[in-house]
Amino acid sequence: MTATARTGARAATPATAARPPVVGPLLARVGFYVFALVVGAFFALPVLWLLTAPFDADPTLSVAVPSLTLSNFAAMFSNPYVGSSLRNSILLSLGTMLLVVTAAALCAYALSRVRIPGRDLLLYILLLFSSVVSGTAAMVPLFQLINQFGLINTHTGVMLVLAGGLLPAGIFILKDFMDSIPPSYEEFARVAGASPLQTLRDVVVPVARPGLAVVAVWTIVNVWGDFLIPFILLRSPDKAPAAVVMFNFYTEGGQANLRLISAYSFLYSIPVVVMYLFVNRRYGFRFYGGIKR
Amino acid sequence: MSAGAGPKAPQTPAGGGAGGGAGAAPASQDASDDAPAAAAGGQETAGAVVLGRGGASAFVAPALGLVGVFLIFPALWTLYLGLTNARLTGLAAAEPQFVGLSNFVRALTDPLFRNSLKVTAIFVVGSAVVGQTGLGFLLAWSLRGWRGPVRSAIEVLVILAWIIPGSVVAFLWIALLDGRSGTLNTLIPGDGGIEWLLRYPMASIIVFNTWRGAAFSMLLFGAALASLPPSHLETARLAGASAWQQLRDVILPSIRGHILTALLLISLWTFNLFTPYLLTRGGPNFQTEVLPIYIYRVAISSGQLGYGAAISAIMLAINLVVALVYLNVLKDKT
């Protein structure tokens, strides 16, 4: 299918700049629409199922005009893992988010305001590590480490591991924000007798709120979708987050329950789409784009 | 903490002063001054007033602690574990023995490891280099200059593929490619349904991952193309360059840095991607067993932690090389 997409585009590219002044624009227009159609179909085709099947009284694996119903959503909650997994996902996302935002804000503030020898080097090394030591490359030692700490099959273990991986980029983003805040406010607070923590909470945090929001949303989206870490660190199905339970739903033996799977996928996907729309509207998604993962 | 900040304060202006002469100026003046050097100097002074070195260390400690224990230490520990025969269960679980380089020797002679390397290389070249970077550039290039609903619709679709959770998109593709009733087979005339994931497993995960990640390079190249001065292209067009010549001689050279960035980052991410597991679990017959799945199978499923750690160490080394090349590229660019 990619092959067709590419052929379509090759037709479009020369047409865009074909120079005979009258034919050119028309050709370009047609070429562009052909390209748009092929690429649009390629990207839309897999997602269509997610929009039809959840509302279909009798969904199959293929896309079809649904015989409209909401009963799949009502029936879904009779499965005990639907409620527990969504709760677990919320808990893991919010817990990791609190860890990352708090630790990253403290660290970024200090790095931004006090000259610690080699702080830029330190930041770059941390960033380097966070991209080199991916969850996959480090799954063995992480598994062993959490095992030794006695944190296997606990949400705490998952949150700590995820926070460790996300923190460097979080610090990096927040330091940028902190650097752009003029320090004079803090001096007033200091003169008025506020402690550093009070200053941070009452003066810096309100000004840095957009940066904190970006890091918070970014952390939540990452944790919400993460599969590998909870998959290897959690044992009991009632502790598993939605990413893992979704996988269990369609790999368990027997006939896959498509009414359950479709409604569940829909519900599980909504939060990230909503957060994307939020970030896109507030900050433009280039932010979101550049720093995902 | 506030008490600690006072006495330490005088030290910092000296440090700040090293950064630039303006650091010595009173901070209250700096705040109204837009010059970057002066602002930085002002922050150093204010930091001294507000925080001090002791306070700063306390602020930095939680983050560094978490990163140290859960990111840096595991990387180093992998190297050690890879030299042992540690296992998940049994005797070697309690008392792992030092076995030197034998895990690495074993890896070199293991046909499934070599298979995995080959599979990974095909997957990265196919889906990261050609697929995501190529299609992303094509999208950015074709969409540039267009405004309106068609462009927005395509961008939304491409980004949607990128942000929906991994285990959901994996199932969407399983449904799409299903042999009996998948959407793709219902679109193809004829009654012989093709089990795409069994007949063409590697092609399937390459197309899947291209679809999944094209958004990143589309956004990156979109920004890069938008930042090119229009006069560049105008000059080339007036000189009679064809679209292809413009692309080759004007556009590609001026966004070389972006192309390298996209190639290296996307390759690194794809190399570390576990998602193919959600589609094929490495099968059929190990045909899609990329390195992350191989490590998962030998280390976590079969419990050979030592051997799995040795493979992880190899993977970390490859990651490190790619990341260092990337840093070099960044340095050359600035």
Summary of the model, kept short:
By secondary structure, chain A is mostly helical. Helix content of chain A is 75%, strand content 0%.
How would you summarize the topology of this molecule?
The complex is a heterodimer of chains A (293) and B (334).
Chain A: H1 2-17, H2 23-52, H3 71-76, H4 80-113, H5 119-132, H6 139-148, H7 155-179, H8 184-191, H9 196-207, H10 209-225, H11 228-233, H12 242-251, H13 258-283, H14 286-291
Chain B: H1 2-8, H2 11-19, H3 27-31, H4 36-50, H5 52-81, H6 91-94, H7 102-109, H8 111-143, H9 149-163, H10 166-177, H11 183-187, H12 196-199, H13 201-226, H14 230-238, H15 243-254, H16 256-271, H17 276-280, H18 291-301, H19 305-333
Helix pairs in contact in B: 1-5, 2-4, 5-19, 7-19, 8-13, 8-16, 9-13, 13-16, 14-15, 16-19, 18-19
Helix content of chain A: over 70%
What would you report as the Rg of chain B, rounded to the nearest angstrom? 27 Å
Strand content of chain A: under 5%
Q: Provide the low-confidence segments of chain A as ranges.
A: 1-22, 287-293
Radius of gyration of chain A: 24 Å
Architecture (CATH level 2) name of the domain at 102-333 in chain B: Orthogonal Bundle
Quantity of strands of chain A, as a count: 0
Number of domains of chain A: 2
